[in-house]
Amino acid sequence: MSRTYEALVILKATSTDEELARTVSQLEEPIKKLGGQIDRSVSWGRRRLAYRIARQSEGYYHLVQFRMGPDRLKELARLFRLNEAIVRFLILNRINSASQNL
């Protein structure tokens, strides 16, 4: 049984456009390897952080909506933590189907 999730990821903004594209594909790769299916992947662009994180004052925000079994979520979070390009991430369970149009 799979559930729908959203992952908001903040990437290091010091990267070039090519590196950011490669990093975004690296975000989607573990989801697919763990048996997940990506519904939507949206770039929110570069934004100023509310406070410095890992000596970064800006971050590149990216939102990924995907479906995956809940038993694989812990492994996905571990893989995100190991990725050095990720400054912060948040994975949420999408419960309300009315919010699909965000």
Write the topology of this structure.
Blueprint: E1 3-12, H1 17-33, E2 37-53, E3 56-68, H2 73-82, E4 86-93
Antiparallel strand pairs: 1-3, 1-4, 2-3
Summarize the structure in words:
This protein is of the alpha+beta class and 102 residues long. The chain has one domain (3-95): Ribosomal protein S6/Translation elongation factor EF1B (Alpha-Beta Plaits), CATH 3.30.70. Helices cover 26% and strands 47% of the residues. The chain has helices at 17-33, 73-82, and strands at residues 3-12, 37-53, 56-68, 86-93. Strands 2-3-1-4 form a 4-stranded antiparallel beta sheet, with helices on one face. Strand 2 and strand 3 (56-68) form a beta hairpin. The longest helix has 17 residues, at 17-33. The radius of gyration is 14 Å and the shape is globular. The model has no long low-confidence stretch (mean pLDDT 87).
Brief synopsis:
The chain has helices spanning 17-33, 73-82; strands at 3-12, 37-53, 56-68, 86-93.
Please give the order of strands in the largest beta sheet.
Answer: 2-3-1-4
Per DSSP E runs of 2 or more residues, the count of β-strands stands at 4
Identify the CATH homologous superfamily: Ribosomal protein S6/Translation elongation factor EF1B
What about the largest sheet? 4 strands, antiparallel
